[in-house]
Amino acid sequence: MAMTEGRLAGVAAAPGVARGAWVHVRRRELPTGGRVAPGAAEAEEARLRDAANRAADDLMALSERVGAEGHEDEAAIFMAHAALAWDPALIDAAAARIRDESEDGVAAIQAAGAGVAAMLAALDDEILSARGADVVDVADRIARLLAGLPVEESLLPAPAVVVAEDLSPSLTATLPREHMLGIVLEAGSPTAHAAILARAYGIPAVVGARGILAALAAAGSRAELALDGTTGEVIVAPGAGAIADFDARAARFADSRSHDLAEASLPAVTRDGVEVTLLANIGTPGEAAPARALGARGVGLFRTEFLFLERTTPPSEDEQAAAYREAVEAFGGDPVTIRLLDIGGDKPIPYLPMPAEDNPFLGVRALRLAWDRPEIFVTQLRACYRAAVAGPVKVMAPMVADGGDASLLLELAARARDGLAADGVAFGAVDLGVMLEIPSAILSSDSWFGDVRFASLGTNDLTQYALAVDRGNPALERYRDAMHPAVLRLIAMSAESAARAGISLSVCGEMGGDPAAALALVGLGVRQLSMGAASLPAVRRAIRSADAGELRALAQTALGDRSAADARARFTALLPSA
How confident is residue 101, by pLDDT bands cut at 50, 70 and 90? Predict the structure, then answer.
């Protein structure tokens, strides 16, 4: 009997197309509801702490193994997991449950991990919410050691698409990669570490495919599974037509990757000779080499939060300097723009306690922290100046509202330079600039742009602040388009002010990686665009197919449009066919 084809829509998490048999990956269940006898709590707590230490040792060994395979950034995930296994906040919470609730170690560490994960899940930050899975993963590892169950099991004996409710980072890393055709998860997030690892390993992945487990159970173990990690499409028991379609997609994907690499050396120049510099947004040093391979001419946004999150102590100056220098060296003379720490009440970290705020996006965050806690930023700036010995470095401050904030940046930088000189530490020249995310910074820019060397438009937050749109509220999706004429006017004002001051202007928000929006930005006078590496080929093709004179005329017209949709349509019509 022919199987019935079923289609599900998930969330694209790692590009690529796969088709084949499937395996539901799941570990043996842990025992639940265990109790400790009266008087045995102290011994059980000692067992818990021993298991935590063994888990940390195992995770450090896993980190070394992943790093030896050439995935240094991914290795850092498991080094952070090792730190979690030693984290007093987690282990002490579990120990308290052993003492106060008479739970055994297995139950206590699972409950403590679930509590921390629930707290993270409640945060209005997609990346930090996704880190809850990491805490659960570490707690699960400790619990398995306590229960005497294997931590790493042989769950994928032959090539197949891996299917699960969710995948822990450590399980994703330890499954045999040569057998992983693809990954489809019922839950999960594109920002979770399982998705990050899938992208690093080149494994197609779709997350948030609600109903996939039930659909496969109904179809049976002999049904094939097809997925497109670029679109988020999943097909259970694909028919002949779907098989032909997905096989063709796989061939096109392979061709497009080769084509993208072949075109990487081409300049982004319009038909009438206007050159645009394409830069990369990166979150770790390891992302520099792939971005350079796709033609990035430097880094327009190096997010540094990865160094500060998921740890119990702040990163040292030496640790920061090494990470920044790694990215600078990878770009071999092209500039790397480092964004100073951008955290607030929505991104709590243990060693930097901050009071909760009703609206952290309008609160004390990013550079605003420096008024009371300057040492964090002085240390980071010292590391940036040290990295500049290896090549050109630019540093920009986020959440700048006016010239007073710009002056604060200059004062912090002077302290960093003076301190390095006094300590006899070598340092290089650094260009200082600001992010333009707050409308007030743009509206007042003529009075202070001459104090800095460059500015970069953070269009995600600029749109949020200009249109009063909460970035995390899906009900406001129709407003969340940076092509809104009001945002375009702010960008035009920024370009005009930067030209008057003689400083460079770039865009590092998602707008820069949107081909239609990129054409609008070129029309408004922006000549540097920074984006995720995967967006570089499409934006390059769009620019090379366009005429800058036509883009200028269209941009001026778009300033008077009634909606983002109207403005976007003007530039979408100019995009080259795929």
Answer: confident
Which segments of 424-484 does DSSP mark as H helices, in order?
Answer: 439-443, 459-467
Indicate if 179 belongs to the active site: no
Q: Which amino acid belongs to residue 332?
A: G
Helix 193-201 / helix 72-85 crossing angle, nearest 10 deg? 150
- Following DSSP, what letter does each residue of 52-70 receive, concatenated? HHHHHHHHHHHHHHHHHTT
In one-letter notation, the amino acid at residue 359 is N
φ/ψ region of 298 (left if φ > 0, alpha if ψ in -120 to 50, else beta) reads left
Note the pLDDT of residue 473: 63
**Banded model confidence at residue 475, pLDDT cuts 50, 70, 90:** low
Catalytic residue chosen out of the listed positions 81, 384, 484, 508: 508
Q: How far is CA 359 from the centre of its chain?
A: 22
Compute the mean pLDDT over every residue in the chain, rounded to the nearest whole number. 87
DSSP secondary structure string for all residues of 86-149: T-HHHHHHHHHHHHHH-B-HHHHHHHHHHHHHHHHHTSS-HHHHHTHHHHHHHHHHHHHHHHT-
Spatial separation of the C-alpha atoms in residues 526 and 531, rounded to whole Å: 14
**Catalytic annotation present for 384:** no
Q: Would you place residue 123 in the very low, low, confident or very high pLDDT band (cuts 50, 70, 90)?
A: low
8 Å CB contact between 420 and 386: yes
Joined tokens for residue 250: 């796989």
Instruction: List, in sequence order, the alpha helices (H) in 211-363.
Output: 212-219, 240-263, 288-293, 317-330
Identity of the residue numbered 524:
L
Sign of the Cα pseudo-torsion (12, 15, 21, 23, in order) = negative
CA distance linking residue 524 with residue 353, whole number of Å: 42
Handedness of CA 380, 383, 385, 387 (dihedral sign): negative
Supply the DSSP string of 183-214, one letter for each residue.
EEESS--TTSHHHHHHHHHT--EEE--TTHHH
Residue 334 to residues 218, 268, 278, 298, 420, Cα–Cα distance (Å): 54, 16, 11, 5, 24
Find residue 185's DSSP bridge partners.
164
Q: What is the pLDDT of residue 346?
A: 53
Is pLDDT at 489 greater than 60 in this prediction? yes
508/423 Cα distance (integer angstroms) = 35
Sign of the alpha-carbon torsion through 29, 34, 40, 44: positive
Q: Span 3-25, mean pLDDT? A: 88
Cα separation, 246 vs 217, whole angstroms? 22
Q: What is the mean pLDDT of residues 320-340?
A: 93
pLDDT of residue 161: 94
Closest CA to 432 of 529, 335, 342: 335
Q: 368-372, 385-389, 425-429, 484-488: which has the minimum mean pLDDT?
A: 368-372
Catalytic residue among 71, 81, 193, 484: 193
Fill in the DSSP letter of residue 575.
S
CA-CA-CA-CA torsion sign (319, 352, 382, 423): negative
Is the predicted pLDDT of residue 461 greater than 80, yes or no?
yes
What percent of the chain shows pLDDT beyond 70? 89
pLDDT score of 19: 94
